[in-house]
Amino acid sequence: MLSKILVVDDEPDLQSLICQKFRKQIIQKEFKFLFVHNGIEALEALKNETDIDLMLTDINMPKMDGITLLTKLSEKPNQTIKTVIISAYGDLKTIRKAMNLGAFDFLTKPLDLHDLEITLSKTLKSVQQEKEARKQKKLAEKAHEELLKQQTLRKSEKRFRALIENSVDLIMILNPDGKIIYSSPSAQRFLDYFNHKNLNISIFNIIHANDRQLIKHILQKTVNNPAEKQYVNELEIINKRQELQIFEAVFTNLILDDNITGIVVNCHNITERKIAEEKLIYDAFHDS
Fold first, then answer.
1. Looking at 119-123, 160-164, 169-173, which range is the least confident one?
2. pTM of this structure
3. For 114-146, what is the HEC assignment?
4. Domains of the chain
5. 168 confidence band (pLDDT: 50, 70, 90)
6. In this structure, are residues 173 and 186 in contact, taking their beta carbons and an 8 Å threshold?
7. Which has fewest Cβ within 10 Å: 40, 110, 182, 184?
8. Is the pLDDT of residue 23 over 80?
């Protein structure tokens, strides 16, 4: 795995020393070094190279020193880069200040290249561990979000199922030819005709002969005009005991909906209302 390291130092010989020391890692594409000369150039490099893993920076530099650079980085809340500082031997006050600003480790001058190799290896190991931890956290968050979605979906499905199973309306799903591929449990209560879980019947088997031509026309219209709902004010359905039931019906084309794949027919039973209306009309004309 390639690790990108930004070196911030104004010493002209440091670049050649580092490239020579880590020549093998560079050739094998384990390390990629970027070199700049001061804090201002470092901030620009970090802006352009968002995947830098580690920054090795001197403290005393022109234009912007290492402490100011660390201060600028500490003001960026999403900055996760690991920093190793290079300080003069015995300058504990500066080292402490740098560590308080978020530096991960430090090296002292004159720079020991073997010590540098050990420090880079240790720091990059910590970088990879944090990357893996962030990756696992994201996976866990994604899994949690998916779990919440599934729970919400199951809750919604249960609510919908409860509404359908306890609805006083009759809900059917038909194929374009009129075969019933689903019917709500209320079908058993209203029609006493077929088991809603074991369907092998056409809507034309349960509607009155007078309505069959109309329903053929409505089905054709629903298929040809999927964006338009089709309404039937009075649909006469005969139950198994040959009793007439009258429904208001709405036909909706959801053939292209993968969850439905059919024409939804929502039927509201108006039998009692029609009987009451007819009684009122009868009474109006036969008032003693």
1. 160-164
2. 0.51
3. HHHHHHHHHHHHHHHHHHHHHHHHHHHHHHHHH
4. 3-139 (3.40.50.2300), 167-285 (3.30.450.20)
5. low
6. no
7. 110
8. yes
